[in-house]
Amino acid sequence: MIPKQFQLKNTIKHPTSIIIGGLNKLGIEIADSLIKQGGYVVLVDAVTEKNISKLDNFKSTDLVSFLDYTSIPHLEDDIRRLDYVFYFNHESEDFTEEISTQEFLTISNYLDAALSLSSKFDARFLLTTSIKANQVLFATDDTAYKLSMSKSYTQAYSNMEMQRYSEGLVMEYHEKANLNTRIVRLGEIIGDGINFNQKTAFNELISAAAEGDDLYLRNDGLENEWFIHTLDAAYGLIKAQFSKDTNGEVYSLTYENTYTHLSIAYKIQELEDQAGEIKFRSEDTSAPPIKIHKPAPNLTRIGWMPRISFDRAVTQSLAAAKISVLEKATANGVEVSNHNKSVNNFQNFLSLAKGDKELVEKEGDSLKKERIKQAYKTIQLQRKQRKKSFPEKIINAFWSLFIFMARTFSFIGKMSPVEFGMFIIVSVVFLIVYVAVISPTLYISRHAITVSTQLPGLNETFEAKKYDVGYVQAQEISNSFSQIENILPKYKGAAKLVSYDSELDDIKSFISFYSDFSEGLQNIFYALAPFNQYLKDFENNTVLRKSSDGYLSIESPGKDYVNNLAEIENRSVFYEKGIQKLEKAQSSIKDNTLPVLPNQIRNLFMSTNEDILEYANVKQKTKVITVIPSMVGVDKPTTYLFLILDNTRISPLGGEIAGYALITLQNGGIVDIEVKSVDDIEIDKEILSDENLREINKRRFINLQPDDVRVSSFGSISNLLELDQTLSESLWEEYFGVRIDALGTIQLEALQQMSSSLQNLMVQGIQLNPENFLSDITRAQAGNESVAYKHEVITEVFANIFHETLNKINSNTREIMLSIEKMASEDMLHLVAINQGFTDFINQNDLYDNSVYRANTYMVPGILIEDPKVVNSTSYINTTLSLETKVKGDFSVENSLLVTFPSVGSSQEISICLPETVRLSSIKIDEGTIPSERSKVNISEDEICIVGRSLGETTFGFSWEDETFKNTESDSINFTMGIGNVNGARTELDHIIEFERGLQVNVDGQTLEANGLGSKVVLNNDVVKNIIINRQ
C-alpha cells in the first residue's frame, strides 16, 4: 500500500499550496507555517531516501503530500483546488556552469507548465531566484557565445541565464495572462538551512573553520555578498506571497547590509577559536571582477524585517558545518579530508527502474535534471490530443466547470464534489424559479419603487403649477405602470398553480386603472406645459412712476407670446382626454375592492390609491390655464378694470374704493396700463340713472342724492354683478373711452398676502413688512390723515406689488399662484366677466360672489364705514354671525340673526339683504341692539335689505320668516340656503338648526339629531347649504 504522504488528497475545503523544490530547510519551514494555518501543502522534489526522511516532520498531519518532479504535468487533472505556488529557483551548485540548449528548453518548459497550472486555477505564483546569480550576470561581459577553434559555434547557457529567463517568463505570464505573480531574489541562505553543496566563498570559509584549517580568500577578499537566515527567508516569502500589493513586483530578500569575504573571515575567527589564519590565494584570478550591483527593493518595503542577526546566523552556520563534518566521518569511517567538503542535497534517491524497479543513486543536481526531463516528455505527450471516452468527457467538463466557478466565486472552492453537484442542482432550480417568479417580481418592484417615490412628489409638482416638470415625471410613472401591466401575464402559470388566478385578474384591473390615471395626468401636464414656458419667457415691460399721470406706465411695447399661447389652445384636446381618463380611473378605484393580498403588497396598493385620489378637483384647478389665451388677449386685446379696496374702511363691496388699475393685454403682453387714485375721477352725474341710485342706496340708512355720489360711493353695492352693470353702463366705459372685458376687486389684505412672496417693497420711502403691513402704511402716510392721501398711498402700494410680481413671475411662480388662489378662496379677490369669453374662467374659480344669490333663500350681511377720521387703522375688522334657523311642521322657516362687530369711528351702517320672498311683516328688530328708530328696511326689485345705523353699538339683531317652502301636503322638501360672509371682514358663523317633532332634517348629507345641530365655523367665503326635510 502506498504511504498516505505519497498520495494526492482531495482537499477542496483547504487552501492548497505547491512548493516546487521544497524538500529543504526553507521549504519545510514554509510548509509547516502553511499547515498550521489550515492549509494543504504539496511538496515537489526528487524522491530520495534523505528527502523521504525529511517527511518525518509532518507525521502528525494529513495535510501534506510529497510528489516527484514528474508529477507536475499530471496535477492539472488530479487536483481540484490550487491557491499558491512557490517555485524555488535560487539554488545551484555553480551559477556559471554551462547547460545545453536542450537542457535549457527542458527546464523552461517545466517552469511554463508550473505557470500554466497556476493560471488555470488563478493561483498566486512566487518565483525565487538568487541575488548572487543576478549580480554575476550583470557584472560579466560574457556574451554566452563561445566560438570553437574549427570556426563553428555552439550556444552555451549558464544557470545565471536560466534564472534570468525564468524571471522573464514569469513577468510575461503576469502581463499577458494576468497571473498574480511576484519574484523574490534571495541572498545566500545561511544558518541551520545552509546548503554545503553550493560552491560559495561563505561555504568554503565556514567548512574550513569547522575543520580547523586556514581561511583562504579569493582574489583580494573585497567582494560583497548578500545573506539571509533560513527562518527569515521563510517568513519573508510567506509575507510576499500573501501581501496584496506585491503582484507583478520584483523584490530582494536579504539583510540590509552586505558583507565582504574579508569581513566574513574576521567574523568567523571572532566566533570560532579553532579557525586558522586568513590567507589569500594569489593564483586565483580566473573570475571576473565583481562590479557594484544594486539589487531589487528589499521586502522591508512591505513590512518584513529580519529577526535573526547576522552574528547568530554565522554561529548557526558553524554549528551546521561541524555536524556535516561529523556525518561524513561517520559515513566514511575515516577522518574527513579538506578536499571532500560538500555533500549533495539530492542523494540516495529512490526511483523505479524500468525492469526490476531497483534503487539507483545519482548526484542531486543531475537527478533533478533527469526528473524534469522526464516531466518534459510527459508535457510533450499531453500536447498531442487523444480521443476521450464519454465518461471522461463528462468528468472533465464537470471539473472544468467547477474550476471556472471556483475562480469566479471563491466560496465554491471550499466545496466538496458532492456539495458542488448539489449546488449545481439547486442553482438550476433557482434559475427556473428566478426566471418564472423572482425576476418579474424584481422588475415589478423596481417600477413600484419608482411609482411610490415619484407619485407623491408629482402631486407637489402639480400644486406648484410646474406642468413642464410634471410632464417628465408623469412620463416615468406612466412608463412604470405600463411595464408592470405588461409583465403581470408572466405570473399566469404560477397563479393558476396556487389557485390565485382571479386575484391576479383583480390586480391587473387595478394596474390598468393606475395606468389610465398616469396617462391622463401625463396628457394634462402636456397640455398645460406651454403655460410654464410662457411664464419663463415673460418680460416685465412696466415701469414705476409717481406723477399725476399714474403710478405705472409702459416702458416698451409688450412682447408677443402668441406662439406659446397658441400651443395651449392646440393641446386642448389632450387636456380634455386627460381629464376624462383621470376622472374615470379615480371613479374605478373608488368602485372596486382590492383582492386579498399580503400585507406589504396591500399597503402598497392602498398607498397608491390614496395618492391618486388626492388629485381632487383637478379640472377646477387647471381649467383656468386652458382659457389663458383668451384672458391675455390672443386674437384681440383684453382690458381689465380692477378696483383697489381699502378694507380697513370696510364696505359691503369689501372695502372703500381707493384706486383703480386699467390693464390692457394683447398676445400675452401688456400694451397699456393706468393705475390711479379714484379721487382723480370726476363722475358725470347726468349719466346716473334712478336704478343706479337704488343700487347705491339699497344698503344705506341715509340715501345719497346724485350730487353726493363719488366713486367711493359705489362701495355700498355688495353684489359684484350689480356693480359691474352699474359701473360699466353708467361710468367706466364712458369715462375711459375703452371697452372693459372684465371687472375685478382686490382688497388691501390681499395685497398684504402678496407682499409675503416679494421683497424690497418701498412706498413713500418706507419698506413694507408683511407682518407690520398696516403699520407701515400708516407710517407712509407721514401724518397726513386725509382719506384722499390714504387712497394715494394704497394705490401706490398696489402699483409696487403688481410691478414686483411681474418681475418675480418667472422665479416665484408657485408662491405667486398660491397667493392668488388663497386671495380668491378667502374672498379678497373677485372678478366678473363682462363678455362671454371669461364665463368658464369665472365659473371654475369662483372669483365673484353671486353664487350665494342663486340659493333658494339667502342672507348676505355687510358693513359700511365712511367716517373720514378712520384713516390709520392697524387691524382688520372681526365679526360674528349668530344665526338660528327653526323648521316648522308646515316646512316654513323662521330665522333669527345677531351680527356682532367692533365699534369703529363715530358711526357705521350694518345691512343684511334677504330675498324678496321674505314676508315684510315677519321682520322684527331686536330693540336691545340697534333701536328701531335707527333701523329701516329698503326694498328693491329683487331684494329686501334691513339696515341699522350704529352710534357705538356693537350688535344688531332681528328675525324674519320665510314661507317660500310652506307646504302641508308634501312629505319632503329640498332647498338651498346661502349665507354670505361680511365682505372685507374676518367672519365667524355660529349656525344652529332646530326643527319640530315629526321632522327629519338632513344638511349637506348629515342627518341632524332631534335636538338640532350647532356648527361654528370661520367663513372665508360665502357658503351654500343643501337642506332636505322629510316628515317621519
From TrEMBL:
<dbReference type="InterPro" id="IPR036291">
    <property type="entry name" value="NAD(P)-bd_dom_sf"/>
</dbReference>
<keyword id="KW-0812">Transmembrane</keyword>
<dbReference type="GO" id="GO:0005737">
    <property type="term" value="C:cytoplasm"/>
</dbReference>
<protein>
    <recommendedName>
        <fullName>NAD-dependent epimerase/dehydratase family protein</fullName>
    </recommendedName>
</protein>
<keyword id="KW-0472">Membrane</keyword>
<dbReference type="GO" id="GO:0048040">
    <property type="term" value="F:UDP-glucuronate decarboxylase activity"/>
</dbReference>
<keyword id="KW-0520">NAD</keyword>
<keyword id="KW-0456">Lyase</keyword>
<dbReference type="GO" id="GO:0070403">
    <property type="term" value="F:NAD+ binding"/>
</dbReference>
<dbReference type="GO" id="GO:0042732">
    <property type="term" value="P:D-xylose metabolic process"/>
</dbReference>
<keyword id="KW-1133">Transmembrane helix</keyword>
<feature type="transmembrane region" description="Helical">
    <location>
        <begin position="418"/>
        <end position="437"/>
    </location>
</feature>
<dbReference type="InterPro" id="IPR044516">
    <property type="entry name" value="UXS-like"/>
</dbReference>
<feature type="transmembrane region" description="Helical">
    <location>
        <begin position="394"/>
        <end position="412"/>
    </location>
</feature>
<keyword id="KW-0210">Decarboxylase</keyword>
